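Hey,
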Amino acid sequence: MNQKIKVLSLFTGGGGLDIGFHQAGFDAFACVEITPAFCETLRLNKPKYFSPDCQIINRDIRDVKCEDIQAASCDFIIGGPPCQSFSAAGRRAGGVSGVNDKRGTLFEHYCRMISHFQPKGFLFENVRGILSANKRNDWSEILGRFSDLGYEIAFRILDAADYGAPQHRERLIMVGTRVGQHFLFPRPTHGRDSALKIPHVTCGEAVADLQDPDEKIHDYNGKYGAWLKEVPPGMNYHFFTKELGYPNPVFAWRSRFSDFLYKADPNKPVKTIVARLGAYSGPFHWKNRKFTVEEFKRLFTFPDDYQLAGGKNIALQQLGNSVVPAFAKQLALAVAKQVFGREIPVQLLSSETKLSFDGRKGEKARATRQKRIVRQNADDLPLFARSSPPKSISVVSNQRDYFCTYPNWKTRVVVLQPDMAQFKVVENRKNGSSVLRVSRMFQQKADKHPLLECTLNFHHPIGDGLEKITCKLYSEQEEDIVAAWDAIEDCLNRNTNYISLMDVFGHFTEPHPIFDFKLKLQSLQPGFLLKFAEYFSNYERLAIDHPAALLKSFWSGTREFNLFEVAKWLRSLRFDVRVFETNANIRPGYFRCCYPFTIHVDKQVSVSWVDRPNGNPVQRNLVSNFKGYEEKICG
């Protein structure tokens, strides 16, 4: 009987990669993992899925010396360094920081372990985005570092659904073998690329025996809970867009993550499940609820008896960060056959074989584009789009007044008594046009002319026929532009189903604005903030890097200009401004403004400010005197 192959597991997480290798005859003698709860999971599952004497090292790999790992020999190394700095979420957060992020440099410690133990090979897993991060420069650096260790490198993008998982999950797999031993990846066991054309495992099949046949459709709570019930299985928030024919659109096309309000289709594999799910992040069960931990384990092909430490959120983090065990097993079998000469009946792919999953994605994209429609009459809408929206729309009265106050710019309270208010908002509606007047209460001077005027012209009528919003801000203080943007959002929300300006603009990485925007300054001597707002009212100037000299040219204060501090102050006003200290892919001395408007008052706008002396990231807490900046810039 063949001896088990001794494996060192790095960045082990909840153990998904290890389960697959264990099932293929490998034995993890040591695991390095930084998160205590994940390490507890690994301990709970000894000896069934790990060696009984497996060494669990609960430390940051940067603090682990090779001598700390107790090993007589090491045959193979497996692991996937944290991928957030290369992931799609990273791109949506402001760009892929890649190896500039401290998480993106952890592969260097993977290399350190390989150099010390000199295994016969290794397997490295990461997200697809690692290939294109920072114009492919990161991937070139990573490849070079591994090649320099004396290994021949093979890599491919593979989809876990093609290997028996009920989940589409594309991952970059790199295998290093001794020079002269070229590695071939396993052929898919499911899908159109499999030898027997076995259909993909559907999520309905995967959880079938866990279902209650008498389960009724659930009511999901929260702001968007009522919308979820309308979403057909297999669709997401796009169902509520104009492009798919929804009568009163709620979202702009591609304005959210694709998992927002995503409901699983029981007849297909689910889309990629991430490690941290928000309240409205899918996949949702087709019965209009969240999946249970037991169901999630099936969607990741974790064994039913595999124990996950911690509550549901911690369990889901372990699953969402893992390599799917069914996929890992096929990779391990291919390694055992080629690197260790085991007689295993696993089919291999030639280096030239192209897989079809990219084509499948293209077909799906084309089908989605065909569904995008522009309809003039409700009778022309597809049947799925003829239901009544949960929120009823009624034409607003000719004039509406309300009052609000701000304990700070991130918190806004609507109040009834004028003497408790900071601002008064008057809306006059005539036909398709709403005109807003926003004024600060009890100002010393009577305002005859507005400080500024914002105009949004929508490309088509929305909600109850709204075509145009004009907002005039009467104030002596430039930072009150925040209140003007909030009044515009209130108007949008009151007269349509859209919640925020982002819903009609789209995410800054993929904007699809359905309005033209003009900001006109009325002040004869505009200060820093007005000049900033006017400059970035031009869409072409958004989401690209600008030198600090641009902001400095707007500067009117007596205090010395400091890009870092000014960026923090702008963010305190809810402008989405980013610099090197928040996004490592932004060059030092440059900044980026992502939207022409302030972020919705309910959105989280806090960031992790990071110092990078000599290029090395160091977390620190900073306390700045924003009041001083307010006085000098806008006073």
